[in-house]
Amino acid sequence: MRIDLFHMERTQCLYENEVEYNLSESGVEPMRVDELLEGSSSPDWLRQAPLKYPPSRGSDTLRDRIAQFYGRGATRDHVMVTNGGSEANYVAFWGLLEKGDRAAIMIPNYMQGWGLARAYGGHADPFRLIERRESGRGRWALDIGSLERSITRRTKVILVTNPNNPTGAILTGEEMESIVHAARSTGAWIVSDEVYRGAEVSGTTSATFWGRHDKVLITAGLSKAFGLPGLRTGWILGPPKMIARLCSYHDYLTLTPSYLSNRFAEIVMEPARRESILERTRRILRSNLPRLERWVRTHDDIFSFIPPLAGAIALVRYRLPIGSVALFEKLRLERSVLITPGAHFGIGRFIRIGYGGDVDHLEAGLARIDLTLADLRHSTTPRSSARRRGAHRRARQAAAG
Ligand SMILES: Cc1ncc(COP(=O)(O)O)c(C=O)c1O
Fold first, then answer.
1. What range defines the domain where residue 333 resides?
2. Rounded distance, CA 11 to CA 25, Å?
């Protein structure tokens, strides 16, 4: 079976450890094992842990705690644990789509669902989030017209990523209802990737699609909002009959989660602990985002920006005569900085910058980007050579500092 290249993941795999400044991450600084074990009376359990298979769907305790995160009647029978959110998405699309089925997919997006829909069904139809100015502020809003156009008789799945990657947007209640309405009109499943839920800058956990429609699968995990990508813990929440069916697909894949990850995930999802971990994430976002915003404002002439409502990711629109992949390559090769180009999310002249890591590292990486922006500016705008030299000098000083 042929499958599209998953450009974003492939380039990250190739280059994230090759550059000095990796600003392509979408999560916060990962937690360490000792932070997770804090307050645990005796971490002896870790030394004594048998490295056996855990229950194939994940332990009862873990599934109970995941169900509690969603409420609205969710129980352990509605949950299967997977290896990462990406495996959750993979199993969901594999289990839902037959050849000839179509999937309506929110764009911009993490393009895993797009590639899977084209591979398993054959067709992916985009609907869009668009920039809208409302009472002086910008927001990424659901384009209802494009949603309606993307739905056909053969639409089997509607994929939303909420909160969204790469915009950091959160759907309003009304927008969620429009998606539910579209799903009902054609009998489609909603697959809602909620891996960033819990990482809201405001501190208020965003609404879930769980409980809004009977044919809903939530995919999520610990990699983003919880800052624990190395546990490779994800999950699918859905009606028990569909979960049982998807387990039979998982039997052909990785069978079970990892035993140790399952144990750590039980600790993470204990309700009080879960909330304190999410608060850690939000603290990092609130402390780093203003630094990034300040940098964006110093480039008002070429950048425009709708601040993210969730996730350690910021999508910046630029006005320069260079495509986003060419800009990404230039930054990687000339400045040893990795960002993510808009093209990898299905949109044009944007770059996504991850701001959840160490803030000094972030600022040093941004200063490197300044060097390239200064080059591009003076190669495209008629400025005096003195101003040009000044911009260059300032960028170099900042990069050196
Ligand atoms: C929306 C979305 N879903 C899923 C994933 C993959 O998650 P995991 O690392 O848990 O496999 C990502 C990773 O960037 C993502 O952005």
1. 7-25+312-400
2. 12
Q: Which residues pair with 155 in a beta bridge?
A: 102
Give the number of the atom of ligand 1 that is nearest the alpha carbon of residue 86.
Answer: 11
pLDDT single digits (tens) 51-107: 999 999 999 999 999 999 999 999 999 999 999 999 999 999 999 999 999 999 999
Do 47 and 16 fall into the same domain? no
| Cα–Cα distance, 74 to 355 (Å, whole number) | 33
Phi, psi dihedral angles at 246 (to 5 degrees): -70, -30
Domain count, the chain: 2
Residue 282 lies in a domain: no
The per-type count for the chain, helices as H runs and strands as E runs, is 14, 14
Q: How far is the CA of 67 from the centre of ligand 1 (A)?
A: 20
From ligand 1's centre to the CA of 243, what distance in Å? 20
Q: Residue 78 has what DSSP assignment? A: G
Ligand 1 neighbour 234 (Cβ under 6 A): yes
Evaluate whether residue 306 is within a structural domain. Answer: no
